[in-house]
Design a protein that fits this description.
Elements (H helix, E strand, L loop, with lengths): L1 H29 L4 H8 L1 H5 L2 H10 L3 H18 L25 E8 L7 H11 L3 E7 L3 H9 L5 E4 L7 E6 L3 E6 L8 E7 L8 E8 L13 H22 L6 E6 L7 H7 L3 E2 H5 L19 E5 L3 E8 L10 E7 L2
Parallel strand pairs: 1-2, 7-8
Antiparallel strand pairs: 1-12, 2-4, 3-4, 5-6, 6-7, 8-10, 9-10, 11-12
Length: 341
């Protein structure tokens, strides 16, 4: 029985290596061109996770050639995820009680939070915002009743607000300590819910401006539909997200500093992430620590990093982390960025 189990596990290891090499080869050739390959790339974290079991078994069984084969996916996994565990020096984490002001420039604390359209625990949402004390918040899945409830609890801290004029279901919005001078919406299609805000960082007429985008890219919720719809939904959502990222890249207007508070519904191993990272910087990648998973789902177990705070190249992130609480199926992502970088 033990021998049969050993043979079975060895065969499973070989099949797993074969699968990884085929997947990575197809990714190298086509990236996210096909919906099924895009789906695999989106879930790359879970495809690579069994390496933590396969590698020790290879060493224990002295399967050196198999271990050498696993070196390729191991190197790719380290390339993708090891930088997230490197210390973000030379800056220390921002205190939770107040925004950080760095010595050589104005710094802003930002939050992006998908509050979940059905979440009516307004006290919990307000509590996590008070604890983090950001200067600007971007909300996704905001219902018409959310903003008045949050303003009633937080209006003394955030006198300025904006909301996308989406008439039904849910949309995006923002609370800010700084005056909102201008509000526009992204074109629909492709951006179903997206705001472009121009803020003035101070009361003086010559105070520096900041562009704030609040966006919610197309979700990948194919499993919310019946199996016969999965292929069509997956194909449509991946294509829609690609078009939305193209729209975002086209809309950039340097040199005004810009931040984007986004439930992007994509992982860092997707082509949409790579395309967006060519024109904007991922604050958590720069200054966060750990996997930074923000989507917790109904099981409350952090599964994927799909919420982001992006910024333009004339800013730099000096701290980033994922907050806890709020009663949503997403966790808020928080970052402090410094102007004049």
């Amino acid at each position: 029985m033990l021998k049969q189990l050993t043979v079975g596990l060895n065969s499973l290891n070989r099949f797993y290596l074969f699968f990884l090499l085929v997947w990575l080869g197809l990714r190298l050739l086509w990236f996210d061109r096909f919906w099924w390959l895009a789906l695999l790339n989106t879930g790359a974290f879970f495809l690579l996770l069994p390496l933590v079991l396969a590698l020790p078994r290879c060493v224990w069984q002295r399967q050196w050639r198999l271990l050498a084969g696993f070196g390729i996916p191991l190197a790719i996994a380290l390339h993708w995820y090891l930088p997230l565990f490197m210390p973000a020096l030379p800056f220390a984490p921002a205190p939770l009680s107040a925004p950080v002001v760095a010595q050589d420039g104005l710094s802003l604390k930002l939050m992006s939070f998908n509050v979940l359209w059905s979440n009516q625990d307004y006290d919990a949402i307000a509590e996590v915002i008070r604890a983090e004390n950001p200067d600007i918040i971007g909300f996704q899945e905001l219902r018409s009743e959310h903003l008045p409830q949050l303003q009633a609890r937080l209006g003394d801290r955030y006198p300025y607000s904006a909301v996308h004029p989406q008439p039904d279901y849910h949309t995006v919005g923002s609370l800010s300590r700084f005056p909102i001078e201008q509000m526009e919406t992204f074109a629909n299609p492709p951006m179903e819910r997206g705001l472009k805000l121009r803020l003035r960082l101070g009361d003086a007429p010559d105070s520096p401006p900041l562009m704030v985008w609040v966006t919610h890219l197309a979700p990948s919720n194919m499993f919310s539909f019946g199996p016969r719809h999965w292929v069509a939904i997956a194909r449509d959502r991946f294509a829609q997200r690609m078009a939305q990222v193209d729209e975002l890249a086209t809309a950039l207007q340097p040199p005004v500093p810009l931040v984007m508070l986004c439930d992007c519904n994509m992982t860092q191993t997707s082509q949409t992430y790579v395309n967006l990272a060519r024109v904007l910087r991922d604050s958590f990648w720069e200054a966060g620590w750990g996997f930074g998973h923000t989507f917790v789902g109904s099981g409350r177990l952090p599964l994927q990093r799909i919420d982001y705070i992006w910024h333009s190249s004339n800013l730099r992130a000096i701290e980033a982390h994922v907050a806890a609480g709020g009663g949503s199926d997403h966790l808020p992502v928080v970052a402090t960025v410094q102007l004049g970088a």
